[in-house]
Amino acid sequence: MTTVEVVELLVSPVHRYAGRPGDGAAPGPDDELVDRIEVRRNLRIVGDRYFGKPAHRNASITIMSAENLPVDIDPAVGLRQTRRNILLRGIDIDSFVGETVTLDSGEGPVTLAVNRPARPCAWMTAVIGPGAQRAMLGKGGVRCTPLSDGVLTLGTASFSVVTASNGTDNEAPGLRRGRSREG
To answer: pTM value?
Structure first.
């Protein structure tokens, strides 16, 4: 188990990045950044625009490491710009593709299958600044499927690997013998 910080949580009832990036993003509600999210197994985040819909089933929750935000381009960048759902500090989440992990912020663990990288698109350059898409290549976060119901809140949380991509339980390279893959 590794201690991490849940820095930001985003639940968006609207799709803001539609059309061409040069046309600008659609306005979003002021309350997209929240203190807690409710996750439902295979249904996504309650209140999110994709909740209960078949689109993006294996990419329904996106998680990004705060250490990988392009703050050199925009010091104020966060989830409202990257459109990820969960921003963590203290772990290189991009290195866990293919693994099953849990996050527990005190209300019980939420289990997630980390399916694939969340590749940055041209919108990143349009809303964050020149070079943002390139800066986020290989570290734009991960797309996950929720395997359990639960609640995540801002603040300290525990992170652990349930099943590693090498097929073993609770033992992923970099997490053995008390080490972690912190970013």
So the answer is: 0.80
Q: List the beta strands (DSSP E) in 11-154.
A: 33-34, 36-40, 44-45, 61-65, 86-89, 100-104, 110-117, 142-146, 150-153
* Cα separations in angstroms, 144 against 42, 54, 61, 128, 147: 10, 14, 5, 24, 9
Give per-residue pLDDT as tens, 41-85.
988 888 877 777 776 667 788 899 999 887 777 677 766 676 778
Beta 36-40 vs 100-104: how paired, if at all? unpaired
DSSP, collapsed to helix, strand or coil, labels residue 133 as helix
Q: How far apart are CA 44 and CA 72, in angstroms?
A: 32
Q: Answer for the pair 92, 69: CB distance below 8 angstroms, yes or no.
A: no
Q: Which residues sit opposite 37 in a β-bridge?
A: 152
